[in-house]
Inverse folding.
């Protein structure tokens, strides 16, 4: 014989079953693609168009303010071009760098490169894509800074290539491999611009020349410090391409004025 308690329990279990189904539905509706913040890993609602959560948004250092028209580095006065760009002649037209290489940005880029977290490329590419915005109208094709075969084996992927590929999907532009790194460079961290320049000499070779002939190329790197690497690549590309633009996730602020 069924007691009143049994009936109540049945009702309760039906209701909790409905509740759990409803919460699964709600979760799928709000987070349909399992989109996660690239900085902290928390779920983000599909109504939120950025690849990071509102908490991390407050922590990220964006590359805002008065910046150099060529290298995109912050300038703390009214000048249009920074001192380094006044001194050096570059073969690229302009750099686009949405973030500053500090705090959670630095931590997450390091995890992307060193811990093989290649899934982060999609979110980083989204940040770059939003930052370049209208300027994509000047670009025909996308390429990237290469790494040597040896480094590729160690790391299992080229972080700049993965970024370029994701960016190419967002911008609906072809991604072409047109540079090869033929010589390994010694660690550039402690070198200034001119030392880096020497270190990079004859490191790159242009391949698939036909693909870039007369084209406006966007060269993708992960971090920009002294501009030496992207300058060396641009110097190679300029023999074939029309204009070269450069982009990277973040700008490493350096005091080196060389
Ligand atoms: Zn977050
Ligand atoms: Zn500059």
């Amino acid at each position: 014989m069924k007691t009143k308690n049994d009936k109540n329990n049945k009702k309760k279990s039906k209701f909790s079953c409905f509740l759990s189904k409803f919460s699964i539905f709600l979760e799928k509706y709000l987070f349909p693609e399992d989109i996660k913040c690239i900085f902290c890993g928390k779920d983000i609602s599909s109504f939120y168009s950025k690849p990071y959560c509102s908490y991390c948004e407050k922590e990220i250092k964006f590359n805002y303010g008065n910046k150099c028209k060529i290298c995109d580095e912050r300038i703390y006065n009214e000048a249009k071009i920074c001192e380094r760009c006044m001194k050096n002649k570059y073969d690229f037209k302009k750099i686009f760098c949405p973030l500053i290489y500090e705090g959670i940005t630095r931590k997450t880029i390091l995890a992307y490169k060193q811990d093989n977290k290649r899934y982060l490329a999609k979110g980083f590419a989204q940040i770059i894509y939003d930052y370049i915005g209208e300027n994509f109208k000047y670009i025909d094709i996308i390429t990237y800074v290469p790494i040597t075969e040896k480094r590729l084996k160690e790391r299992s992927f080229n972080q700049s290539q993965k970024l370029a590929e994701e960016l190419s999907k967002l911008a609906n532009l072809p991604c072409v491999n047109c540079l090869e790194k033929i010589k390994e460079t010694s660690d550039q961290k402690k070198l200034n611009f001119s030392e880096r320049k020497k270190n990079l000499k004859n490191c790159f070779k242009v391949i698939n020349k036909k693909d870039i002939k007369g084209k406006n190329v966007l060269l993708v790197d992960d971090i920009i410090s002294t501009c030496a690497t992207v300058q060396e690549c641009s110097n190679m590309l300029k023999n074939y391409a029309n204009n070269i633009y450069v982009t990277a996730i973040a700008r490493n602020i350096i005091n080196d004025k060389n």
Q: What stands out?
A: The first helix runs from residue 4 to 30. The chain has a mean pLDDT of 88. Residues 68, 70-71, 73, 81-82, 84-85 surround zinc ion (ligand 2) (CB under 6 Å). The longest strand covers residues 141-144.
